């Protein structure tokens, strides 16, 4: 995720980092060269004039924009749903931490409470590692007692197995006076929500937008762009390559952004900053139990990219 | 469902599997031949020139794109709601499995718990079989005791009857110390959610998008495509068939995708991978109770189709 | 609701039943004749040439399509919300039936349980009759004891009064051991949901899309269609009537579908199949208590219309 | 809110009442006269020909339609959310009335129950009066005991203060056998929902769509309409005023409808029928406790406007 | 937030305050001067005629409008979700205040209740200060006892730490007769909702719309506007600068509004009136406990801006 201070409208033209322009340059270069060639040949192929006019591009540009718009909305919805799920994770772990103190009657500094908080933090990191296919063992060893850390490392669905530990902790809290089955069920309700969050993230990560859409839109966008110079050369002349690349840039870039946002849990520049969010959850949970905060989230600097 | 690794933008033009192109080839072939004929006749019918210009196609192409866009969104929403329901099924069965351990006070390896888990897994497979109109008896015999398997096989709404079994199991758990009516109601709340999931899937499977839409859009899309060459022949000449087929491909393919996604529980390439999801639910539930995992979900290979 | 097997793309052109075409034929006929007249007069009125070109129709066609698209989405949302409410009714009555067995400790065959189920079924039929303004007395006499049936027949908001009966049944179940205030409140929560369902249906039935929209769109659609031949006659000549009717058909049909879906509880061909849903709820509730199923929902036949 | 029987498609052209046309007539008259003047001057201003062609209007008409479409959707969503909130109010008061009988064990005719029902009805009327800035004192005196009516009349946020009364009533019901803290909390949960309903209505009433949108769209719509005749005069000649007014009517009317729906709690013809809904809630609540219904909601007559 | 009385349609053209026009004037001035230059040079650059026609602008204007429309909807959704969250905050604090009286059995004037209310009010102000990066210490000292105010001032996530205080207050209320673990859990459920509200606000404040969108749309909008005069000069002549600025104003203003609404918790004129909402929450909570209202929210005056 890229955070930037607001910029002057004029300087925003020259932003390089965080734009998709760099990765598109080769394709736009090909498109530019092709357009130049078509202008040079005045739109002929093997001496036959290609009789394209702007008319079919008008007809079709609208359809293309609508279809791209649909794909883009679907991708953005996935990105934003992913963000909402991680927001819910923050809310829910905070609620569980609060309940572990105020419902059980434990004091803030209780050993038990800290153990519970650490499982919650480990849960968060495990979810991140599962979504990014990275190894959770380092974080597990940092946060959990050795034996538990070991058994979780073996598990296939780590966050789910950790939730059994959370459930057992709550079950054991029944020895506290005033913590009865009602309080247990109240905390268990928040575990249900955690289960929904894990499943929601898995759903986004495992089910892409149907592949057929990608194929159809990809083909349509590129064919459209590569036919465009034939349609424009008669009326626009030598300015055709510039206009073609300008229109092409917008369509191709829109498709590329949709592609990047579709899988929001990756590590591309516009993906969600799961690392920063894990650190933030750790910070706020530790503050709730009055522990010193481990590290600060780095301050906002211009063009800073969080991962 | 088709899962594929990201591909180079250029190689994506030549994807065959997973595209709807193969099934559309005959129609596009007819359209191509018709266009060639119209070019050959220079847009005349029985010596009368058909005086179509691109203008009405511009007017109409926009309306068509909007209506197609609506149909497509409605279909995609059904696809995605179906996926969400199966995601909720995963979350909910996990929650019930957790509660069967941590609320009842049963140990992980308890016979009772395993019986409960097996009913949950059978529930999942029954829902799949009901949605796909296939026979559930094999899975039922694998997972349930003989007599129960037999009586469920007879039932019309199998998942619902299985839920009575789940409810009875929970009722019987009242003999465990610490599992009172409150815990029972907490688990019963998750059965309510299962009921919503079953009903949600039945709703999508039994209520298509109103038939009138299909008829209207189908007629409009094809009439538009078959009139298009008359409108383009004067300005585009010999390139008319190519452009007609290109525009026709996009509109017709969009309609075909919408048609396929509308019923997401089928077995077409872009439908939901219910089999893979059933296996995954079985795997994660067995891991929760510490049983060895039965089989691995096959790894992602290029162009792999899950059903 | 119309259910049909998938059809060959070519045969779908000739579908008559379930299309809105039949009811639109008179209007389209008027439009056709008018277009023929305009072509014959070469677009003059009282010897003055009407100087319309396609340009304003392009400008305006887009706006029209957008506004129609909005009206259509709003109508479809109402249709689909109506379907969701009836789906929720299915889920909720199933949940109550399950709870009436597994929470109370009654056996499946208990008299009391059957009485409860019958009130639930009567509730469903009453809601249908209220929404369609038909008489509920026959169904009430079939399902309820005479005196109760009589008093409900007198009531203005029958489903709501029946819910008091459901609530009283639950209150009386407090004599069962193990069924305490907690179980009562759990079932009462499902009554709250029933209340939301009834109110949701009443909302859709009593509040149409603001009338001003209908008037504005209706006027715009028809004026557009009747002015269109003047705009097309110069460039399209004798083919004007065909194109006019084709474009007119799409716009007018879209408005007609939106009109039909707006009130989804009626008995027009594309409305919701409330009768079939009532029968289905009756079937599944009776199966839950192990009673023989009363009648089968008729199998899907080509072009079958459920009401 | 305007309720009308379905009308013949042809008679709908001449609907006057409920259309926004009457209030727009002066503006459309100005537009018509201006267009006539421009036709008369053949599009010149001080002898300079204004060289506008339809092209920029095509470019811009699309953008305008999209922006208007956005504003319209946002307004309609507010209207429909307002309706949903009042629907939820109906559902929720019904649920509370049912609980006041079946959870407490009071009989229908109990004094206490009637007092509770009357506070619920007063709550409904107070919300209406707050949203419409009218005086609640008459309704309060009709429904509540003198002293309470007086103290509520003084309050700033009347429905909220009434909810404390509802909460106190529920607290006092604890003396009933079988009505314990669980039943109390179940009814309290419905009070939470009432709180959400009040706040939701206040949100819609106090936060309009950002003012900047109104200014921008208003300026754009009117400038567009007043420039249009210059763009059409060359190609359309003497028919320019008619077409200008036709296009202008659609855009201006769409803006006017959006403006009216944006604040759904007012008393304009298309606003929500809060009076009718209050009466309906009163009727259904009284029926639940078996009281005679006070008055009938007037039957649907053609073109009847509910307020 | 700007609140204004409805204005005459004609006077709305000359609204200055609350429009984004003032901040856009320099850019539109540049655009105007450029257009004048291009008209003067008759669209030539270094004696080469730039052969742009309106055609590519039609193609592209539609795409641009769609993309802008998407960005605008996404921004408006963030604005409206922010408003909903603050509305939920109002509802939830009211509910907690009600419960603190009617569930605990405290009287309205109880010291304890007032302390609880003050923590709720402090919570509200802390959230505002966190979202706006302002200092909460003044409000904390006004509302809380000295020691607590001090410790909260030190905290990083102040509202979350305050919620522990709320939880402790509820835990201590267990000494009241009739306030058992069930009542505690009911109030705790509302604390969960508060947690969701805080996290929801943090989500909107910390995660902007992906930066790539801003860059892409910004570039496209401005390039489009600055190329436009070349495309219009041939057909529109001396009126080109006016039309260019008119079209440019709409596109640029739409982007600017989207930019302003995207972060709804700021202090720009169209942002949410967090100060007014804090005051309103304080007022209504104090009224619930029967305390005199501290200050009136200033009445609506024409063009009044709330912050």
From TrEMBL, chains A, B, C, D, E:
Q: Can you say where in the cell this protein is located?
A: Cell membrane
Primary location: membrane
Record-level GO cellular component terms: plasma membrane
Question: What membrane topology is given?
Answer: Multi-pass membrane protein
Please give one Gene Ontology molecular function term for this protein.
chloride channel activity
* Alphabetically ordered keywords of this record: Cell membrane, Ion transport, Membrane, Transmembrane, Transmembrane helix, Transport
Q: Which InterPro entries match?
A: YneE/VCCN1/2-like
Q: Which domain of life is it from?
A: Bacteria
Q: Which residues cross the membrane?
A: 20-41, 53-70, 221-254
Family affiliation = Belongs to the anion channel-forming bestrophin (TC 1.A.46) family.
Provide the protein name.
Bestrophin
Could you tell me which species this protein originates from?
Answer: Dyadobacter luteus
């Amino acid at each position: 995720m890229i955070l930037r201070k607001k910029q002057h409208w004029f300087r925003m033209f020259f932003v390089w980092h965080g734009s998709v322009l760099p990765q598109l340059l080769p394709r736009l270069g090909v498109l530019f060269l092709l357009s130049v060639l078509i202008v040079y040949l005045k739109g002929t192929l093997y001496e036959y004039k290609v009789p394209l006019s702007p008319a079919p591009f008008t007809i079709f540009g609208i359809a293309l924009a609508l279809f791209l718009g649909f794909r883009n909305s679907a991708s953005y919805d996935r990105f934003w749903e992913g963000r909402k799920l991680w927001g819910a994770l923050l809310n829910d772990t905070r609620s569980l931490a609060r309940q572990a103190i105020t419902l059980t009657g434990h004091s803030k500094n209780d050993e038990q409470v800290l153990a519970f908080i650490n499982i919650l933090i480990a849960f968060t990191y495990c979810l991140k590692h599962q979504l990014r296919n990275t190894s959770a063992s380092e974080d597990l060893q940092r946060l959990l007692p050795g034996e538990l850390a070991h058994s979780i490392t073996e598990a296939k669905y780590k966050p789910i197995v950790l939730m059994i530990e959370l459930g057992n902790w709550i079950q054991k809290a029944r020895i506290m006076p005033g913590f009865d089955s009602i309080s247990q069920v109240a905390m268990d309700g928040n575990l249900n929500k955690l289960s929904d969050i894990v499943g929601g993230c898995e759903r986004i990560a495992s089910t892409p937008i149907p592949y057929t859409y990608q194929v159809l839109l990809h083909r349509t966008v590129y064919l459209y762009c590569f036919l465009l110079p034939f349609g424009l050369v008669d009326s626009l002349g030598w300015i055709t390559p510039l206009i073609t690349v300008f229109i092409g840039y917008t369509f191709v870039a829109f498709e590329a952004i949709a592609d990047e946002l579709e899988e929001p849990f990756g590590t591309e520049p516009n993906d969600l900053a799961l690392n920063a969010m894990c650190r933030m959850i750790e910070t706020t949970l530790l503050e709730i139990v009055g522990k010193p905060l481990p590290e600060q989230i780095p301050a906002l600097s211009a063009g800073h990219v969080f991962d």
